[in-house]
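haha ok so turns out i had the wrong file open the whole time. this is the CORRECT one, sorry everyone. sequence first:
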Amino acid sequence: MNTKEKSFKQALKKIANTVAIVTCENGERRDATTVAWITKVSNVPPLIMISVSSKRYIHNLISEAKEFNVAIIGEELEDLALFCGTKTAYDVDKFNEWNIETMKPYLISSPLIKSALVNLECTLVNKFEVGDHTAFIGEVVAAHNLREGKPLIVTDRLCTLD
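then structure:
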């Protein structure tokens, strides 16, 4: 990485992003991965976008299943976020390795994270390549507000806003 790329990467760390754990299940295959590139894109219909590297195991799962769940998490799940963001489902079943407690979804097949602040069940409505990532646009078909709390965010470190 050259000096210009390092400077650019360092500057982008000043953009605060919500940390989420995205889950997807397709038949016998499933994954949970940490995503920090997430945004709302429409109120009517309710649409959100997540950006996922094409190298991630979950990338093909979402493309095939045409659905995903976005679990907005609090700081108590920081260790889980770090685990899901650094381990690959090519090597380990994250659900079993970490003993992730899940809940059954209402309208999709992908599991919900029981200890999340919010779970957003999404059906895939569009996807497009953006550089080294794919932007997945999902329509929120069910929302579960599980508990109060401040969402975990990332800038140049993980934190919550006080």
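The domain at 18-153 is CATH 2.30.110.10 (Pnp Oxidase; Chain A).
again sry for the mixup
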